[in-house]
């Protein structure tokens, strides 16, 4: 009964915070409160030490960081978003030094929650300018340590799907910037590498969750890459870079690997 009451209180508190953080006027009022200002900057300490909210629930962490990000980008906040992301960056370096499944899952959930709040070109660009230096190390370290950890890889793919989501036309890089090319190339490596692993191996168990569901995420990533304002794909042809062709080929290979029998079972 005590646990049930605590869970109910936690859920209701999260719902209230979400409503206030996403409301235009309530958001403006929130960021003026001293307790909220402290939360916006000291969140890593508060969530893990002082007031360990939702520690066992990755989805709640995602919602928490989404709400935080909504407050960081409030028009009345004068500080750069990098100021608020700095504690997360410090913790990310610690996690990548000695990653555990739990730490990676929570990290991907937190990052996904933040990116979901970046609804405009300005806010997305500000986030990506900060995150770009972590992108490659995060992907490489995760694959090195957790390639066969299903939950970790699922959360990585879901985060990357949100990162490349071109909703509200938010992904627009300056023509003089290499960020679009870098983002496209790093995500295409995941599509090609992990796609090949999924295509060549038949899992023992639930083939939909262990294989096809992840293929769907990879193909979704490719679809979003092609729809975003990353780069003129002709650049790859000019410089002899095959990343676009390889990623597209990996998607067709994944589609081709789906057996007709399995397809009929899912459709029925």
Q: Would you mind describing this structure in some detail?
A:
The chain is mostly helical and 268 residues long. The protein has two domains: 1-147, no CATH class; 164-268. It is 76% helix and 0% strand. It contains 13 helices and no strands. It has helices spanning 2-22, 24-30, 34-50, 58-72, 81-97, 101-117, 121-146, 150-163, 179-200, 207-227, 234-238, 243-257, 260-267. Helix 8 runs parallel beside helix 10 (207-227) and helix 10 (207-227) runs antiparallel to helix 12. It is globular and about 55 Å long. The mean pLDDT is 87.
| SS content category | mainly alpha
How large is the count of helical segments? 13
Shape: globular
Number of strands: 0
| Low-pLDDT stretches | none
Order of helices and strands: HHHHHHHHHHHHH
N-end to C-end Cα span: 42 Å
List keywords for this structure.
268 residues; 2 domains
Give a concise summary.
This protein is 76% helix and 0% strand. It is built from 13 helices and no strands.
Topology:
Blueprint: H1 2-22, H2 24-30, H3 34-50, H4 58-72, H5 81-97, H6 101-117, H7 121-146, H8 150-163, H9 179-200, H10 207-227, H11 234-238, H12 243-257, H13 260-267
Helix pairs in contact: 1-2, 1-4, 3-5, 4-6, 5-7, 6-8, 7-8, 7-9, 8-10, 9-10, 9-12, 10-12
């Amino acid at each position: 009964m005590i646990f049930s009451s605590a869970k109910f209180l936690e859920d209701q508190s999260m719902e209230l915070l979400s409503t206030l953080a996403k409301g235009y006027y309530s958001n403006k009022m929130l960021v003026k409160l001293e307790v909220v200002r402290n939360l916006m900057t000291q969140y890593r300490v508060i969530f893990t030490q002082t007031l360990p909210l939702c520690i066992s629930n990755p989805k709640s962490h995602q919602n928490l960081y989404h709400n935080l990000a909504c407050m960081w980008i409030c028009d009345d906040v004068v500080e750069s978003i990098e100021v608020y992301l700095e504690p997360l960056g410090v913790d990310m370096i610690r996690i990548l030094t000695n990653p555990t499944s739990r730490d990676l899952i929570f990290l991907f959930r937190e990052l996904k929650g933040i990116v979901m709040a970046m609804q405009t070109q300005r806010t997305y660009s500000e986030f990506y300018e900060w995150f770009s230096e972590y992108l490659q190390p995060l992907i490489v370290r995760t694959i090195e340590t957790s390639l066969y950890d299903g939950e970790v890889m699922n959360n990585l793919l879901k985060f990357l799907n949100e990162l490349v989501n071109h909703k509200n036309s938010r992904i627009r890089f300056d023509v003089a910037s290499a960020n679009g090319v870098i983002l496209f190339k790093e995500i295409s490596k995941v599509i090609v590498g992990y796609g090949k692993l999924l295509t060549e191996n038949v899992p023992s168990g639930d083939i939909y969750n262990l294989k096809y569901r992840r293929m769907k995420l990879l193909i979704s990533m490719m679809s979003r890459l092609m729809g975003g304002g990353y780069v003129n794909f002709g650049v790859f042809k000019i410089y002899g870079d095959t990343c676009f062709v390889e990623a597209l080929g990996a998607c067709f290979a994944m589609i081709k690997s789906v057996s007709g029998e399995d397809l009929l079972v899912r459709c029925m």
